[in-house]
Amino acid sequence: AEKPTTKRDAMKIYYPSSEHSNSIELSHDDIKCLEPESLLSSTIMNFYIMYLQGPMSSISTQRGKYHIFNTYFFKKLEALKSKVDKPSYFLNLRRWWKGIDIFQKPYILFPVHADTHWSLVIICMPAKEDQSGPIILHLDSLKFHNSRLIFSVVERFLKQEWNYLKENGSLAECPIRETVWKKLPHKIEKKPIAVPQQENEFDCGLFVLYYMQRFIEEAPERLHKKDLSMFGKTWFQPEEASALRKKMKTLLHQLFEEADPSNDSTSEQTACQLLLEAKPANNVMELATSEHPLEVSSAEITSQKPLEGTSTRPTSFEHPLECS
């Protein structure tokens, strides 16, 4: 017989707060994907991406400017290839980065999810004095996703945005050397990156989040080709990424406990509220997440249905990035 639902099981919290128009709804069921040998869901991935920007995070005071898209963004880019009315679709897609000059950002990051596996894309924009163009990096803890196909999707995105800005003259100030900007579609480089590898079949999401965290902590203001030496198979120990499972589980249990109205220690302004609602004084990072993005001043989060996984390593990757 099924266990009866308790008040604890039915309890929900909203991150960063219930007042936030795009808050993530979290329940105790969402924590189940943090059990050993489980794959992370989109809900938990997006929760931690947003947590990284909070005042308790080690990267909250970084000076570099980043644009982080959520776990649903790459699928939107994939769909661009199959749409009949591509110009119209792309105009709608641009709402994801409304008010943001993509080419002004030093770094753009977003996860890729396909065939129950997670990997990470980082787009690095060149400095004004650099002779090279943007560099697309692909970080994969199993070398499982097809980097070539992922690169084609991301490159198409950059080219279409470049065409749009070129035709509409809406780029306030070109952040890239003029000679490079004029030939930008031919200047985009793609590099699969050697990174520490997971030692099991179920930690891919943890590695994506840890790649993101470590990169933001260590990346220079603008990445030059020589800076790619920061990566490598010995960049960090695999167990450091795997340890995120316990950290996130502990954090979420703490948030639920502090938000529980029956908890005697709950006050009008608990540590939970401080963690959930406080913002760093110099919040230079941004997170675009909404299925239908809204214009907001800080991070956007949506509580869409998570992508659930199993603990079995995928065995096939036929046409992994093709759209029907």
Q: In a few lines, what is going on in this structure?
A:
This is Ubiquitin-like protease family profile domain-containing protein. The protein has 324 residues and is of the alpha/beta class.
Written description of the protein model:
Helix content is 31%, strand content 13%. It has 324 residues and is α/β, with parallel strands linked by helices. The chain has a domain at 45-244: Ubiquitin-related (TATA-Binding Protein). The strands form two sheets. The protein has a six-stranded mixed beta sheet with strand order 7-6-5-4-3-8, with helices on both faces. The protein has a two-stranded antiparallel sheet with strand order 1-2. β1 and β2 (24-27) form a beta hairpin. It is globular. The model is unreliable at 266-286 and 289-324 (pLDDT under 50). Belongs to the peptidase C48 family. GO terms for molecular function: cysteine-type peptidase activity. It comes from Aegilops tauschii subsp. strangulata (Goatgrass). Residues 291-324 are annotated as: Disordered.
